[in-house]
Amino acid sequence: MTVAIKNEIEIVGRERLTPALEVAKKFTSTTPSRPALNHLALKENGEMHATDTFRAIILKNVHSYQEEILLNHKTLDLIKGYVFPHLNELLKVEEHTQSSFQLSKEDALKLIPAIKFIKSNKFQIMKFTFTNDYIELSVPGIHLKLDDFEFDIKQHKDTENIISFTPIYLLDALEAFLKFSSNENITVHHQGALKVMIFENEDMTKGVLPRRIY
After folding, report:
1. 112 contacts: CB under 8 Å, gap ≥ 6
2. Does residue 5 form part of some domain?
3. Is the separation of the CB atoms in 196 and 190 below 8 Å?
4. What confidence score (pLDDT) does residue 66 get?
5. What InterPro entries has UniProt attached to this entry (predicted)?
6. DSSP 3-state assignment of 85?
7. Cβ distance 152 to 101 under 8 Å?
8. pTM, 2 dp
């Protein structure tokens, strides 16, 4: 007797899940003190979340799991039971933010080599200054002024737009934008020198904590 087997196998979410995993894993924690943060959180609404408490990322419309699961990006094990931070609340733009502007992928490509240069010189903190016409990256002994920008900055508070970052954190945020976003632009919200800078568009939301300079 021959038994006919009808295969109805469906790959769920692979088109966006694979690139999302590659992008988001850089935002996970490597310390054992909070095990949940070593994983990626797959949320019920189709989002993927990751954070190491210094930066965070939300990638949208990634998967179709119907419950919250943590994904180990190294072993691909799926885990339940851990409580993951509510990143949508933590990455909410304040009503009275300092300034905001649109950053294009072309702009990001101009910035990345300069940030990589500073990172290669082992600097832990980099000052980031932006105006309508230029961005300046500064560390002791090095000042890189990048021209040819045409930002339309919406200035909500009459203060300078200066903020300091760990170079690799800002670099990972820009590269995530290039690799995952189908939108050519992302809105950058500068909320103050000591508050998280938020990048957001229809595909993703990211936050990078600034560094305090004494």
Report:
1. 171, 174, 175
2. no
3. no
4. 83
5. DNA_clamp_sf
6. coil
7. yes
8. 0.90
Angle at 86 between CA 155 and CA 213, to 5 degrees: 50
The rounded distance, in Å, linking the Cα atoms of 62 and 46 is 5
CATH number of the domain residue 196 falls in: 3.70.10.10
SS3 77: coil
- Closest Cα to residue 91, out of 200, 201, 212, 211? 200
Residue 118 has which token pair?
Answer: 């500073």
Token output for 62: 């990634």
Cβ(91)–Cβ(59) below 8 Å: no
Segment 127-146, tens digit of pLDDT? 999 999 999 999 999 999 99
Name the nearest CA neighbour of 162 among 188, 123, 135, 143.
Answer: 135
Helix (H) or strand (E) segment spanning residue 89: helix 87-90
Coil, helix or strand at residue 200: strand
